[in-house]
Amino acid sequence: MTESTALVWFRRDLRSDDHRPLAHALAHHARVHCVFVFDTALLEQLESRADRRVAFIHGSLQSLHVNLARLGGGLRVLHGEARDLIPRMARELGVQEVVCARDYEPFATARDAAVAATLEAEGIAFTALRDQVIFETDELRTGAGRMFSVFTPYRNAWRRALGPHRLGEARVDPRPGQLMLSGTSMPSLADLGFQAVEKGLEPGSEGAQRLWEDFRGRMAHYKALRDFPGRKGVSYLSTHLRFGTLSIRELVREALAQGGEGAQAWLDELIWRDFYQQLLWHRPEVEHHAFKPAFERLAWDEGPEAERRFHAWCEGRTGYPLVDAAMRQLVQTGWMHNRLRMVTASFLTKDLGIHWLRGERFFARHLLDFDLAANNGGWQWAASTGCDAQPWFRIFNPVTQSRNFDPEGAFIRRYCPELALLPPKAIHAPWESGGTPGYPNPIVDHALERQRTLARFKAAGPEGEG
Questions:
Q1: Choosing from 300, 404, 418, 431, which is the catalytic residue?
Q2: Annotated active-site residue in 158, 266, 356, 381
Q3: Catalytic position from the list 266, 379, 381, 392
Q4: ∠ CA 72-74-76 to the nearest 5 degrees?
Q5: How many CA atoms lie within 13 A of 26 on its CB side?
Q6: pLDDT in single tens digits along all 466 residues of the chain
Q7: What are phi and psi of 127, to 5 degrees?
Q8: CA distances in angstroms from 204 to 14, 210, 312, listed in the order given
Q9: Catalytic residue flag (residue 9)
Q10: Is 272 an active-site residue?
Q11: What distance in Å separates the CA atoms of residue 455 and residue 464, rounded to the nearest whole number?
Q12: Is residue 379 flagged as an active site residue?
């Protein structure tokens, strides 16, 4: 090891353990500084000054600073344009290398390319390492050398290619004096131009570990319970995975160690994360366009009536209880159960006939665990414009979904209290029993809208004909 200095740039990897960039820097440099930038290029795109994600990140950074301090260092937190601040800090500290975890979103890849070019022009290395996924970019390809566009073959290839070297812990074990503290101040939320907000979820590695320990004991039941929003069946770890407050490698190691159908079903969900990340990396245009080009021609509904229906969907007053309860959960808590993400997305696109991008953007504003790759992939899956092996005529019936996955109406009652006194048989379709005061009748007829959706896709051209 030379007497060199590195700068570790934290982004969506807000932890100090099992951290590949930090472990790399400690292995190759005598001095290591750590930094996070509240990037104004991103913050200025947020519509609300009371954003749960900013508050969660802020809390997680406080936790990360404490954990780095225990190792002898600390975290410098800056506010401004990362494209400018990272090269400036690298120059001020006289570092030889800037190290970070690779990010696959279009904005991030452009930002990182700009930072790398600036650094390299000054003789400073820029190293981005795989950390938030198990397989990245084009590490997995089909037999013909192309990207995977269907999940099941990708999952099979992922499992075949998995080896111990993929899951090894990136140990963070600094020598005394190796981790540096290059600044002690952390901007407050007010300094950032944001308001304090109830996060609803404990931030940082400590919050992640508490949820993880709880789920490890429930993992065996995941497959049986995961589709029921009124039951405690899922991991609730999506936000911590999004911001990297725990290691994806640790989760995969545990799923493989436990085995059984519950752990295997949960492992599939982790593989979906990799799948959507590689899809976005290969096809960045899907951020704004249909994965299947023919479906750019779909004639989505527009005009005053479509706007009225869209706002009813946003506000949880469509007259379909499961849809409304899910949308209210999203707005009130910043989270939505995965089964309900599919139900509500299908309802917007195939019952209301509204463009999937409008729903995807609404979720992006409200989800605490918002991840562009997963959100975009999930919406295009539900809208049948994405990389889905099943034809476009998969249309969820919101009443059937309600009866199947919230049979007693426990979830509906939690978020639609005006329906709380209805018996289980009536709560899924209250209009069939004469309606309920204070709760709207359905804004559309599902059977009629299903036929309209089938016609819409058939009119789109060859792909729409199956």
A1: 300
A2: 356
A3: 379
A4: 155
A5: 24
A6: 568 999 999 999 999 999 999 999 999 999 999 999 999 999 999 999 999 999 999 999 999 999 999 999 999 999 999 999 999 999 999 999 999 999 999 999 999 999 999 999 999 999 999 999 999 999 999 999 999 999 999 999 999 999 888 999 999 999 999 999 877 678 999 999 999 888 689 999 999 999 999 999 999 999 999 999 999 999 999 999 999 999 999 999 999 999 999 999 999 999 999 999 999 999 999 999 999 998 999 999 999 999 999 999 999 999 999 999 999 999 999 999 999 999 999 999 999 999 999 999 999 999 999 999 999 999 999 999 998 766 667 899 999 999 999 999 999 999 999 999 999 999 999 999 998 999 999 999 999 999 999 999 988 865 544 3
A7: -125, 120
A8: 7, 10, 35
A9: no
A10: yes
A11: 9
A12: yes
- Phi and psi of 33, rounded to 5°? -105, 150
Active site residue 338: yes
Q: Choosing from 139, 202, 254, 269, which is the catalytic residue? A: 269
Decide the pairing of beta strands 97-101 and 125-129. Answer: parallel
Q: What are the φ and ψ backbone dihedral angles of 286, each rounded to 5 degrees?
A: -65, -10
Angle between helix axes 321-333 and 398-405 (nearest 10 degrees) is 70
* CA distance from start to end of the chain: 60
Query: Residue for token digits 């249909």?
Result: 290
Contacts 24+ apart (CB under 8 A), 402-410: 402/320, 402/321, 402/322, 402/427, 402/428, 402/429, 403/428, 405/227, 405/228, 405/229, 405/322, 405/339, 406/228, 406/229, 406/230, 406/322, 408/230, 409/321, 410/230
Catalytic site residue from 272, 281, 381, 392: 272
Q: DSSP secondary structure string, 158-180? A: HHHH--HHHH------PPTTTB-
Enclosing H/E stretch for 349: none
302 is catalytic: no
Q: 254, 338, 431, 449: which is the annotated catalytic residue? A: 338
Distance CA 46, CA 53 (A): 10
